[in-house]
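Summary for the funding panel

The consortium committed to producing paired sequence-structure records for every protein in the target list. Below we show the first two records in order, beginning with the earlier of the two.
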Amino acid sequence: MERIVANVGAWLGTIYGFWFNIFMVIASAPLALVSIDISTWILSVTAIVLPAFILKRDHDRDKVAEHRDVAMHAKLDALVAAMPGAPNDLVGVEEK
């Protein structure tokens, strides 16, 4: 289930997902002539689900960026520690 949510969230976060959402809202407009309850339900589900998928995608992107930052700091620490004459108090400075 989590994989499905991640994939749908990634797709809805693209420009195609945005336009699909706009299309679905416009396509549901004729349903308002049949029943206002159906139209309200479709708009409510869209208003709740779409932001949830987009927030999930942003959270996943932030998690990946954090892992990249940790890896970059570890590599920089290794470079500073390997340099002759470099002060070792700079190693791990981001953790202090």
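The next record, for a separate protein in the list, is shown here:
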Amino acid sequence: MSLIKTMPLTPPTILRVVLKKAREEKGLTQEELADIVCLRKWHIHEMEETETFITFYSMTIKVHAAKRIGAHLGLKESEFLEPVKKS
């Protein structure tokens, strides 16, 4: 049995507005949050403002970073990650 969790082929959608609102409610700037979760300010900006993954190199890495951010902000994954809908 593998202990490594793999991501689905299509990663979940990051609910950017939820992450941004949670950060603001905690009274943190993007730079302060970045320092806390060991990222850069531009990572937090990209997480909250765009659907791209330019500074993360892949969407998988961006989703893992979102999980770290969400955990620090006291959010459940289901609050800021929308699973892929199967057709």
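Regarding this second record: The chain has one domain: 13-81. The longest strand covers residues 13-14.
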